[in-house]
Every structure is written in C-alpha cells, then in structure tokens.
User: Fold these one by one.
Assistant:
Number 1:
Amino acid sequence: MTQSDFFSRVYRVVRRIPPGRVTTYGAIARFLGSGQSARMVGWAMNKSYGQTPFVPAHRVVNRNGFLTGKQHFGFSGTMQQLLESEGVHIENDQIPEFENLFWDPLKYLNPDLF
DNA sequence: ACTCTGACGAACC
DNA sequence: TGGTTCGCCAGAG
C-alpha cells in the first residue's frame, strides 16, 4: 500500500467529508480522475473498516441518496444511526435532503493534491 | 490463467 | 418507465 494507491486516495477524500454532509461513489471516482470506476470506490468502502485514521464510510451514498451500503455496517441500521447522529434525516433508506447535503469533492478539494 | 462477483452509474434498448 | 448491458478493476475460488 502506498500513498498513491487508489484505495488510499479514496480514503483520503472520504475523510474530508464534513460531518452532516454526504457524497457519492461516483463523485469520488470522478474527482480522482476515474469517472467510470464508481464500483471501485464501493469496493474501497467495503475494505475501509478498521482503517486508521477512521474512514467515515457512512457519509458515502449512491447518486440518489440511498444508503445502499448499510448492509456492510454489521448490524443493519448502523449506517443510518451514524448519519442521524450527525443530523442527517433519513426516510426509507434514503436522504430526503440529499441534494442540499451533497458535498462534491470537485468543489472543495484540489485534485492535484490527491 | 480464467471466471465471477460486486457499497456504482451511465448508456441502451 | 423500466429492465439489461457494459465499463471499471481488485480479490476470491
């Protein structure tokens, strides 16, 4: 594992997502210059458990604001609980305010630094 | 070496 | 409107 590994780059982006905000697998992939690799971002999240520093994977949802990765948080409901503890409202595994809470890496981070 | 499977998303029917 | 295909590519069998 080196600093430039795709997974490491993904983790570094995810760690920058502010509490109470969310982004998408595709947005991260596009930010890293690999727009068609959203699946790899998902795979990276799957392997993010136990990483240090902590990787707030619960702040990454799919492009429609659905908590598609909730099954991977151990007890079903953990992902939702983490988000709600940050003030993110959820209904039926979806974030109604998704469009307002969406945090785009391309808008706040410099790709050259990743 | 080869096939299959995805925490995705866009393009096609 | 909705199901299927396809690009992507790292692991597992």
Number 2:
Amino acid sequence: MSPSDLKETAAEISEWDEFYRSVTKYGFSKNFFKKENIVLPGIKTFFSIPVESTEKSDFSSVAILDETADSKDTVLKVLNILYDKFQVGQLTNYVIVVGDGKSYDHLIKLKSEYGEQMDWVLAYPGDWHIYKNVLPIFVKIYFDAGLRQLATKHHHGATLKVLTECSKFAVTHRTYETAGKPPSRKRRNLKTFAPIKITIHKQKKEIKDQNTVISCLRKKIAFSKHSGNAVKDLDQFLQLPRALCDAEGIPEKGQKATAANVFKNIYSDAFLLQVPKAPVSSKTTVIIDAGGFDDDRKARAISILKGQVVDYDLASGNHEEADTRVWLHASVTTADQVIIYSPDTDVFFIGLPLVSDLNKTVYVQLRDSPYNNSFLSMDKLVKCITLNDSLLQGIDSVLICMQLLFIYSGCDFVSYFRGCGKKTFFDVFRKHASFIVGNGSFSDVHGHNGLYSFYRLICSVYFSKHRAAAFQPYSTPKSLFDSISEGDLHEKHISFISAIREKLWERVVTEVEMMPNHEALKLHWMRCCWVFDYWSQSTSNTHALSDLSKCGWQITDNRLEIVWDTVLNFQKVEKNYSGDQVLDMSIDLDDVISDDTEEFEDPVEVEQPELDGLVEQLDQTDDYWLFSTEEI
DNA sequence: GATTGGCCCCAAGGACCCTT
DNA sequence: AAGGGTCCTTGGGGCCAATC
C-alpha cells in the first residue's frame, strides 16, 4: 500500500472542485462587494440563491399580497397571470385552480360570466369544502346536545334550517358539477363519527385497566414523594404482561409476512424472479408442496418427482404440521434440487439452520405474485447472512440466531410483542448483534446464557423504541448495561430490566406499551425454546419434546393455556392494588384471573420454595411492595 | 396481502434571543 | 448586523396495526 493507492474517484474530484469553486466565489464576492458598500448575506443564504443548475420546481406561486384577497378583480388578475405562466393553449389545456370558500365562489361566477373563454379553468373547492361535508354529521350528533340552543344565538336568530341543510354555503356540489367537465380529483378520506368496531365488553376492560394503572401511578408517586424513597420492585399494576396479551389473556398476534419483507430488503440477492435453469448435468428436481392447495389435496402433503405425484405421508413420522414435514421430505429425497412451495413464511425460517447440512440446492417459492421476486434461494440466503451482512460478522451460529429471533419476536406458537414488529426486532438485533449474542450464548436455548441473551434482546428493543428521550445519558443498551456494576450476571440482568422498566413508566400511557417483567419474559422464552426444539427436529422422523407444562404452558381440563406470569407476581399485583380505595376503579380481579388461578402450578420450579414465606409476609403488610425492603 | 391511519422520530426552517 | 443557540412547527419517512 502506498500513497498513490489513495486516489480520489472522479466523483470525489468533481465534488471537491465544486466545493472549492463555491466557497471561493462566496469569499471573493463578499470581499469584493464590501468595497462597493454592498453587503452579501450569510454563506447559508448565499448558497440557497438559485443558479442555473438549481432544480426547477414545477410549483409556481403568484404574488398578490397587495391586492384585496377576496375580490372578484383579484381572482381575475390571478387567472390572467396563470394563463400566461402555464401558457394555456400552447403547453397546457387545463389548469386546476383551488380556492377557499369565497374565491371558489368568484371562480364559478367568473366562469359563467366569461363562458367558453374560461373553459381552461377547472375550479376546485379547497379545504373549506370539507366543513360543509362534515357539518351534517356534527349536526346529527350534537343537535340535541345543546347545539339547538347554540344555533339560535350564533346564527343571529336564523332558522335551524340553515344549520341542518347547510344552505348558507352559497356554493353546492350541484353548481360545481354543472360548471364543466370535472377534473379527476384526488380522493379524500373523510373522517366520520362511525363507531369503532370494538366490543363493548373489551372496551370496558381496557378502560378499567387504564384507570387502574393511572390511579396506581398517582398513588405510587404520591407515596414516593411522601416517603422520599424511590419506588422499587415490580413496577406493574396489572397481572398480565399486557405487551404479550390482552385483558383476557389472549396472546398478541402480529404479521409474520413482514419478516419475509425484511429479508427481501436486506438480503435482496437471495430473492429471484425464477428458479435458474438447472445445468444439464443436474439429475433430478423435486417439488414439495407445503399444503398450499385448496382442494382435497389440502390436508395431504404431496410432492412431484419426475412428473409423478407422490404422497410423502410414509416418511412423515409424527410431524403434525406441514411446515416442518416439508423439511423432512427435503432431507430424505434423492433429488438434488428441491423446490418447496409454501405460502407461509415460517417454512424458510424453519429450514434456515438446516439447509447447509442437506447438501442440496433448495428453493422456496413464496406466495405467487407477478411483480415480486417470489423464489427464495436458501443457499444464497445463507451466504447473504453469513458472509455478506457486515453487521453480523463474527457472530456465532448466526443462522440459528436468526431463527430464534424469528421465534422470539412472535410466531404461530408464541405471542408477539405489542408495538414491536418483526422489522424492529431484526433491525435492533443487527444493530446490537455482538452485545445481544455475547459469546455465542444466544443460541444456548437450554442454559442461562440463552435466557440472558434473550433479556438483552428484549431490553435492546425497548431501549431503541424510546432511545431518544428516556435513557440519557446512555446512547446504546450496552452502555446502560455496563453502567450496572452490582451483583453476578443474573442480578445484573435483572437490574438491567428493572432500569428500563422504570424509565419506561415515565413515557408510556398504558401497560400495553410496557416491557414485561423478567419472569413473564422468562416464561415467554421457555415457550420459544420449545418451538425452537420442535423446529430443529424437522429433519428427523420423530420428535422428542419436553412436556408442555414445563415450558410455559399449563393444561387445565384438557385445554392448553399460556402461563403469563408466576403466581408470586400475580399475588404481588393483587396484594398491591386491590386492598383500598383503588378498588373502586380497579379491574375486577375475578374477571382477569380466571377461576382456576388457585390451581396454578408455579412453572418456575426453582422459585417454588420461596413462595410460601413471601406470601405470608405479604399477608402481614398490605403495602409491602410500596416500601423498600429496609423499611419493613 | 394491500391499503390506510396513527404514532413517533427526525431534519429543516422560522421566530426569537443573546453575544460578539 | 452576523452568527449561534434554543424552541417550536411542519412535513416526511418508517413502522405498526386495523381493516377489508
């Protein structure tokens, strides 16, 4: 490497010349004109003076400041200027002229006065017109709510007919339509007062929840001021982690398809318009269908090999979903090129860590669309992620990480995080990859390190969402994490989560926006690990999976339910916020905790022994969780 | 799946104030 | 008067969620 290697590009040279010329021009002019007693404006203003190369706007303004705005003469004058500016008759045939109520009125009058001469003017009613459209709706809603009385006062005693029929607005649609060929208009969406479609039941629950949180917050702040102590511990007023589920405990759903779009944007090289023609030497191609047909073949998984339709139930073992079964088939088939038809984005995420071991060329056909690249080359995708993504260099088992990321952020089996979509998750992960992954611990789904990585991921996501305001002076999640010095790795992560949750309280309005507490997160993570285990066994005939009830779910009356939080936390919240005056406004606790709450098994077994002691302690002091530990 | 509306962040620019 | 700083408004973009 020598200095001569550092040659400027042609573009850089031209940029520099341009810069040099501009600055010199400014400096020289300024200095020169000073002698002539002419003062040039500042450099910022100077550079914004248009020159020949300045891009011309197709937007023109007409100065009429000195004229009376709403007189007929002014409108006529403006129309004459416009006629010249737009060279009507030569370059243009029609000009759309937008006017507010009064000028629109003039326009129409002038048009009828001048007849054919004004055909080029297409009058368009401006924003003012909207009021007329909305007014009847207002009237309808508020007529009996005091509007009747107001109207007689404000319309100088005019009859209510004026109000209900909008007859004081001189110009109506009818005259507008007869004024000439209507121009194609940009569609406007009118805001109406149509009721939002949420069931009243659901709405009531949400409102109750909000009120509870607000009153609790007020109480909490008041107490904190009173005692001079910062409020600690759970930072939660509702029993369910509302970022993950609604007031009924129904998991949050999100859009999976965006994950595919995210990949399309980042790794566009892997998405093809069609499968490349196989070379002559290539032997066989198999097409596997993941259940995309709508006829009787829907339930069957089929494949086409050498023009023959073959059922592959034989090899399907105890796979329950076509999504994983396709990969089993891709693995056992003798063909060396595999095309999988799948309308579901799950499929390529399932296969992501598996394809390298298959030693086959695998393509996934995504949903048919003539405008999109709908074939995904798995090999190219793997290359894009492992080799070409500069943000992910040096990350261990990055393919597994991507799959886990997809699961963590929500899929068919586990809930999504409200307000945090796939895009956010992938962006945050790529941005803070080394911090989140640590020493390859992200993919450690059976140990503590995997959980800690998951914690770091979720914290980073919420950090990024509120980064601008909430976490000064820390600019990255890592710097905040590093600022926590106390305790071992576990305690450090718990403090990390608490720190973020505490800050979030200053920003959020409802608990829906809150990051779940660390135990709720852990339960979510356990469910995710189960899914990961399930997916990673796609290519084997049979699955060996852990008991669901040990992985964040519980089975009551043959029904699978999600365990959202530990019993301890449920009780903390209940103890905390149902004892006194808050009760009036609080959620009906019987509604939220279903009847079988008492039978809850604490899914985190390690914590079971502590439970009894703590509950007893809770019984003694109602306000336990508002006091810091020392005060008890 | 595509469209649309809502929300947030950010950049740009104007108003205003202060300093040089 | 120029320049810099702060505060505020505005418009655009990105993203998510609701809707059909």
